[in-house]
Amino acid sequence: MRADLTQYGVEEARTPAEVDKMLAPDNGTxxxxxxxxxGCAAGRARPxxxxxxQHQTKPAKVATVFAGGxxxxxxxxxxxxxxxPPSSPSMxxxxxxxxxxxIHRSDIERRDPAQIARLLTDAFDEFCA
Length: 129
Hints:
five-stranded mixed beta sheet; alpha/beta; 6 helices; globular; Glutaredoxin
């Protein structure tokens, strides 16, 4: 399940310190993916990330935390995303350390991977160009 994302060059952030390092303002745009073992992560979210990362415009960095595996890192990221209810899977786009776009589980469950990838690529075009 981890390799489903790392095969696309997605970096794992397994500790709170690694989350903070990834989201440092000098990293530019960063997509953080909350991965999980659920079916919508496997069948929708992870494939969508792979599709979106083929897009011409993309974030400077892409990282993931694994719900149920990287508990401290997930809790830390959820603290940063406290304006949103906890969600696994989910995707959050940051620019210069600030959240600019969020895809919640409810956005993932009702879409197929291509539709989710389109949400991501539209956000990449808006915030990463």
